[in-house]
Design goal:
The chain is of the alpha/beta class. Helices cover 43% and strands 12% of the residues.
Length: 307
Amino acid sequence: MSPAPPVLKIAFDPVYAHPLPEGHRFPMLKYELIPEQLLYEGTITAGNLFAPAPCADEVVLWTHDKEYVEKLHGQNLSAREQRHIGFPQSPQLTLREFVITQGTIDCCHYAMAHGVALNVAGGTHHAFANRGEGFCLLNDFGVAANYLLKKGLAHKILIVDLDVHQGNGTASLFGNEPRVFTFSMHGAHNYPFHKEKSDLDIGLNDGTDDKLYLSLLQNTLYTLLGQLQPDFAFYLSGVDILSTDKFGKLKVSIEGCKQRDEMVFSQLKSKGIPCVVAMGGGYSPDIKTIVEAHCNTFRVAKDIYGL
């Protein structure tokens, strides 16, 4: 019997429609529009999409503290903790985070089978073991990386975080874990203003353009892959690096952002390293810009991996 053909698998979030106060709905809208656009244009079919179940507490607790997880389930976060997260607590929001996290874990299995898999949401890199920050409750890359290590499915993991904001929670989680290498290339003068120490941090000056951004990434990623020889990679493909972003402070064009994705996927594929992708941030005033930039990541992944 011939093996099943490779396929592009995409986790989507069926719980995004939880009620949020006015002003919080806009940043969530992209999670509905990205799969709709990809389906409309024919880049994917419904068969590419899967809806994850919530992640089991047992797995989450390999990364997050028990007291914090119990607070999430019990809706017992303090007002201060909710302010740090940026969303008011609700059962739907907690459920959504557990679903997103399982989606990233499921993507790991698909990536090992097909080379790459993507989560429409995820990239919640500001979540620490004992608290949430910056719209992040659980650290999906952190939970998924620990899952791979615990199950013996990976032995050296590279996390490539190219969101404009440093992955402070991820850096904290793996500060003493030599099997996980955290690389964050972000705005030096952007949130979080107290940075944690990743294994490699590249802080970019305000106004960094396509040429400098892509040159730094090309050389750094090539060197890291040669030195580390990872057997698995997570890629946070935030589009808040765009010049149009309200908070990003960089000057990367939408074409430069697409070339970034091409660079990451090409280098990982050339070395046979499975890759799981999460979307991360994006806050351009026009939702069409955000959706187009994120959709480019899916289009590029499909083209480069021949899926």
